[in-house]
Specification:
Blueprint: H1 20-33, E1 38-45, E2 50-59, H2 62-67, E3 112-114, E4 128-129, H3 134-142, E5 146-148, H4 151-159, E6 174-181, H5 184-190, E7 198-206, H6 217-257, H7 266-280, E8 285-292, E9 297-305, E10 308-309, E11 318-320, H8 326-335, E12 339-341, H9 347-352, H10 354-357, E13 369-377, E14 380-389, H11 397-422, H12 427-447, H13 453-468, E15 472-478, E16 484-492, H14 514-522, E17 525-527, H15 532-539, E18 543-545, H16 547-556, H17 559-569, E19 579-586, E20 589-597, H18 607-674, H19 681-711, E21 723-726, H20 727-739, E22 745-749, E23 755-758, H21 760-776, E24 783-792, H22 807-812, E25 817-824, H23 859-869, E26 873-880, E27 884-894, H24 901-910
Parallel strand pairs: 22-24
Antiparallel strand pairs: 1-2, 1-7, 2-3, 2-4, 5-6, 6-7, 8-9, 8-14, 9-10, 9-11, 12-13, 13-14, 15-16, 15-20, 16-17, 18-19, 19-20, 21-23, 23-27, 24-25, 25-27, 26-27
Protein name: histidine kinase
GO molecular function: phosphorelay sensor kinase activity
Enzyme class: transferase
């Protein structure tokens, strides 16, 4: 058979190792080509770092052929006069190869039999060879083909002539040993100039002797060329298996990414993660650790030790502080990178990271492989996943990448679980608000789709995407201060998946409802003022943003904008992608910007497509303007209705509250007039006192109305004198003023060292009004408690009602020190349906109108305005009918001034 013969291809293989049928096929082809009666193939086993024999075959019935002296190969041409010598041929023979002798009946696969180690220990299957050991190790070390002309020569060179070193039933007469290099093209892909690695070593041997027998020097060069095809077959099989494995990984990732509905529990999520790990890598021990920012504690919540799950850890996790785990804290919270080493071999790393190798999952210091994956979310880490295995090199680059992706998905799922738990208390109110919003949306839809701005923009971006056949389209609106562009509507294919772009930014979690979807879209913000965007918009006309401009813009964005630009537009899989931007202006006013990324493989849209987009943008701009005008008109109408309702409530309240003091004044005045002749001085004094008290009540009512009127329907900035105010001093003054008329016991529980930043007069008036309000609606002999505590803004987030949460302040000033002040009474309480109304003007709870308690319904409204003007919030924290209410407010906390004399004199002077 000629060295240029064409091999027929075997069937495809896609299992975890090289199929035996493929290896047997390759050996059969080499035996046919080089007239060999036996052959073995050793491949590099990276787990042990040695060559391992994977297959060893020979012609069937060799014993019978040798015993009958039947020639195993027909005679043919060849250097029969060549003198055999004890030499390993390592020199290259550049002479042209003569015509090979033809085999009359080349062996087929059925003619071959496997050589079992029990009969022949020569190149036994599954035996391993390090570099330099035996024929295989020698070929690996030299990386060149060579010939050994006799079995005795083989024993002399590699076994010092010991005949009993190898147990074999048949003795080969000559050997041809060929190293198998990685294909050159694939090596070039790995890196230019990088030498190719060795895939394995093939050994061919003959059993014949006599003239023309044995391997010839020219066959050495031919063998090197022939094994290139062997290498290609092996590489092709490996690539097929790698492709199949990648497909399986993607299927597993898809399964785990869709396994987190809103009702998912942490236990279910962890169990799915465990199953995923066992399907991807060898992990005898697993440890999942989470960090809770609220409690500042580290929790080991799931552990597997030597394939045995540690039960009960989810209910009673191992808890520790960052001071108790400094190594874990440094790796996961500061360095935030993947850590991988072999504890049993890397003694220095094992000593350095000893803390990570022990704990709830047992002692892993003797493990062959260790892997730590931080669970990163945005710019913070919420925990870690640790794996260990008794298998050497258990975690390759491909597996680590898959595990990192899985950990990212699990991290998002765990954060969602935390959010579900945190929002559980507000779920009822949120559902009520959703129902209200659904009713409003339904009413707007019944008017006209064109007049609904949200539906209009959604339909707009969907139409644009359909017209130009893109999978992404977004509409940005300029903020009122013209500083930023905020996304208002976005279209994206539901089947699109986000790929890791190496930015270390987290993937966007899928929204759970429309409200959250809209809020997620509005998180996409792009800077506008003093940027190249503003300049390009002012120049007029549409324009394209190139990749470098988009990257520059992403660096100036917050997290929402950066994630949008990098994970949806600047994808490595779509190089050179640009975004078409069309400014949408009404007359000279900028309404918004339409952003349309170009499809894959397209750098610019066609003129016809751009013309279509310009036309639809012009029409949509007018529609948006009309919808906004309609919305403004509806808002003004609603405001008028609200003012009309407030007017009615004011008339009811004023008539009710003014009637009582006026009736008293008129009644006692009438008595004085009718009984002036016989009335006594004590009676005159009593009547005058009653008249004065009623007049004072009337004056207080009018004063409150005047203050509320000065505040106006629109917020009016109050003139404040901000300075440090001692909470205890203000509380004592307010309590002492009330104690003269109150029938309740006032308990003052305030730390003297607590100071706030505010206006002393307004601060004291707020406390006084809240105490007076508590006294009005509390039964005699009951108790009113005034308390204050020092805390931080982020710590009271769960106490605030939804309408009093300033999300921007919670993010930017979460660690701001505050003083939390409560006034708790034992009165009649407030009904749930009235809780949202009591802070409005002229509003009193309906049942309070039937009591003898007098009031204008302005006290709480004025108190809230004063507190907000001083930088705080006032709300009803808790109210139980017939058991009492708790009104709470906070103000910025400050340190006690060094010299208080000047402050106190200033406060008294002002008051």
């Amino acid at each position: 058979m000629s060295s240029t013969s064409t091999w027929s291809g075997p069937e495809s293989y896609a299992d975890d190792g090289y199929p035996a049928s493929l290896l047997k096929y390759l050996l059969q082809q080499m035996m046919v080509q080089f007239a060999a009666q036996g052959a073995c193939l050793a491949l590099l086993d990276e787990s042990v770092g040695q060559m391992r024999v994977q297959a060893h075959v020979r012609q069937r019935d060799l014993h019978a052929s040798i015993a009958s002296h039947t020639p195993l190969t027909p005679p043919g041409t060849g250097p029969g006069s060549m003198r055999r010598r004890m030499t390993v041929h390592l020199e290259h023979d550049g002479a042209a190869s003569p015509t090979r002798r033809q085999r009359s009946a080349p062996p087929s696969l059925d003619d071959l039999e496997d050589v079992v180690p029990q009969l022949c220990s020569l190149f036994a299957v599954d035996s391993t060879y390090p570099k330099g050991q035996d024929i295989i190790g020698f070929a690996w070390q030299k990386n060149d083909a060579f010939i050994i002309n006799s079995h005795e020569e083989y024993l002399e060179i590699f076994h010092k002539g010991q005949a009993d070193a190898i147990q074999t039933d048949i003795t080969p007469s000559s050997y041809l040993i060929i190293p198998i290099e990685e294909p050159i093209l694939l090596a070039e892909v790995h890196g230019q100039g990088q030498p190719s690695s060795l895939l394995g070593v093939m050994v061919l041997y003959q059993m014949t002797s006599g003239i023309g027998a044995g391997f010839q020097p020219r066959q050495r060069q031919e063998a090197l060329q022939a094994v290139e095809r062997v290498a290609l077959y092996l590489q092709n099989d490996r690539l097929q298996r790698s492709q199949h494995r990648t497909w399986e990984y993607l299927q597993l990732l898809q399964e785990i990414s869709t396994a987190f509905p809103t009702t998912v529990s942490l236990a279910d999520l962890v169990e799915k993660m465990h199953r995923f790990i066992k399907q991807v890598v060898n992990a005898s021990s697993i440890l999942l650790t989470l960090y809770d920012r609220d409690t500042e504690r580290i929790y080991d919540i799931f552990a597997v030790s030597q394939d045995e799950q540690m039960l009960g850890l989810a209910d009673q996790p191992t808890v520790s502080t960052k001071e108790e785990r400094p190594v874990w804290w440094q790796v996961t919270q500061q360095e935030k990178h993947t850590l991988q080493f072999s504890p049993s071999h890397d003694e220095q790393e094992a000593e350095q990271y000893h803390e990570l190798l022990v704990g709830a999952w047992g002692d892993q210091r003797q493990a062959e492989a260790f892997l730590l994956l931080p669970m990163k979310m945005f710019n913070r880490s919420v925990g870690s996943l640790r794996l260990s295995s008794q298998r050497v090199r258990a975690y390759g680059p491909e597996e680590v990448e898959v595990l990192e992706t899985m950990v990212q998905i699990v991290t998002v799922g765990i954060e969602n679980v935390k959010l579900y738990e945190r929002d559980r208390q507000l779920l009822h109110e949120a559902k009520q608000r959703e129902a209200q919003l659904a009713g409003i949306n339904s009413a707007l839809q019944s008017v006209s789709a064109v007049l609904n701005v949200g539906e209009l923009l959604t339909s707009f971006v969907e139409s644009v995407a359909e017209l130009v056949h893109v999978d992404l389209c977004v509409f940005f609106q300029l903020t009122q201060n013209k500083e930023e562009l905020v996304a208002q509507a976005m279209y994206g294919l539901s089947s699109a998946t986000l790929q890791d772009d190496g930015s270390n930014l987290p993937a966007i979690a899928p929204p759970r409802n429309k409200a959250e979807h809209d809020e997620l879209i509005r998180m996409i913000r792009l800077p506008f003022k003093d940027t190249f965007l503003e300049q390009m918009v002012n120049e007029g006309g549409f324009f394209y943003l190139e990749a470098n401009q988009l990257d520059d813009l992403a660096q100036k964005c917050d997290e929402g904008g950066a994630i949008f630009l990098r994970e949806t537009i600047l994808q490595p899989s779509i190089p050179g992608r640009q975004m078409l931007v069309i400014p949408m202006t009404y007359q000279t006013e900028l309404v918004g910007l339409l952003g349309v990324p170009t499809p894959k493989g397209v750098r610019f849209f066609r003129p016809k497509e751009v013309g279509t987009l310009l036309a639809i943008c012009a029409q949509t701009t007018s529609a948006i303007r009309n919808a906004n005008l309609f919305g403004e008109r509806e808002l003004a109408y609603a405001q008028l209705e609200r003012m009309d309702k407030l007017k009615d409530e004011f008339i009811v309240t004023a008539s009710h509250e003014l009637r009582t003091p006026l009736s008293a004044i008129i009644g006692y005045t009438s008595l004085l007039r009718r009984q002036s002749a016989r009335i006594s001085p004590p009676q005159i004094l009593r009547f005058a006192t009653r008249i004065g008290s009623a007049a004072q009540q009337l004056l207080d009512l009018v004063s409150n109305m005047t203050v509320a009127a000065q505040m106006g329907a629109v917020d009016k900035k109050l003139e404040l004198t901000i300075a440090p105010v001692q909470v205890l001093s203000a509380a004592e003054i307010a309590a002492s003023m009330l104690s003269m008329s109150a029938e309740q016991k006032i308990i003052n529980s305030v730390d003297p060292a607590l100071w706030v930043s505010g206006d002393a007069l307004y601060f004291r008036q707020v406390i006084s009004n809240l105490l007076e309000n508590a006294s009005k609606y509390s039964p005699p002999e009951s108790q009113i408690t005034l308390s204050a505590e020092a805390t931080k803004l982020i710590d009271i987030q769960n106490l605030l009602p939804e309408d009093q949460i300033d999300h921007a302040a919670m993010v930017e000033q979460e660690n701001m020190p505050i003083a939390l002040i409560r006034v708790q009474d034992q009165g009649e309480g407030i009904l749930p349906e009235d809780e949202s109304k009591i802070f409005e003007k002229f509003v009193r709870a309906p049942r309070s109108l039937t009591t003898p308690v007098r009031g204008s319904g302005l006290g709480l409204y004025i108190c809230r305005r004063y507190v907000e003007a001083m930088g705080g919030r006032l709300w009803l924290e808790k109210s139980i009918p017939n058991k009492g209410s708790t009104f709470t407010f906070y103000l910025p906390r400050v340190e006690s001034p060094i010299e208080t004399g000047e402050y106190e004199s200033g406060e008294h002077k002002k008051s």
